[in-house]
Structure of Chorismate mutase:
Amino acid sequence: MNLLNKNDALSLAKLRDVLIRLEDTIIFALIERAQFALNDCTYQPGVYKYDNGSQGSFLEYFLHEMEKVHARVRRYTSPDEYPFTSPLPEPMLPTLDFPPTLHPNNINVNKDIMERYLQDIVPKICAPGDDLNYGSSATRDTECLQALSKRIHYGKFIAESKFMDPTQQKTYIKLIQNKDRDAIMELLTNRTVEAALLRRLRRKALIYGSDITETGEVVTKEEEVEGSTATTTSRKIQADVVVDLYERFVIPLTKEVEVEYLLRRLDGWQIPEDTEN
Ligand SMILES: C=C(O[C@@H]1C=C(C(=O)O)C=C[C@H]1O)C(=O)O
């Protein structure tokens, strides 16, 4: 998809294809991270001294330096004029800014992503302990966080696309004018799409998380299950963890981004006459 092409950028079907592809990115990023131990010291503030004077954890230092590079490069690649006719809140392209102060949203999405990732995800996918691979695990953490942030910030494009739907625009305008957050959330929610996503995600996590031999067999291991030995598939990541991550965290945050975006959608925008009540 070309985000600089307005038709592509606002086609709901194309945007949903991007979210589907990002499922693969996120699952593989988690699998990459899961090969290293927890390495808890990389998340503790003040363990190391940094040349930029930062007080944060090793991971925060790492993210900060990465984001500096991204910000510098973006300056040279942003088009002068973004081809949307209506304003999109900054930053226009989803990024993981750090330190996480950034968004014009009330919610501090990236701080939420970071907290939930560290509390809920890393301890479930990594072996407890320390394997001294601090640089490797911080690199993988960065990839996971950037993929999650990108996915969740796509809510802005999804929301714009839903708002531009001529059959829905009047209703959205009314709800936005009434600041009816709950009704906006209800209107933008598509439970069929969510349920299909969770089913697909479980299958992907089962398949991508398996090891395959050169003759195509799925690698198995012998395991003690309730007192007897059973043959189970050896998995690099538990499908439940991935599904739970989406159900409790990725989808709800994407929708919060959608609502926050829509609540600002009328600011500085002239409502077309034929849409006004
Ligand atoms: C992203 C969308 O909006 C909502 C959020 C979804 C998600 O985060 O996966 C899925 C369906 C909708 O409830 C969409 O409609 O595709």
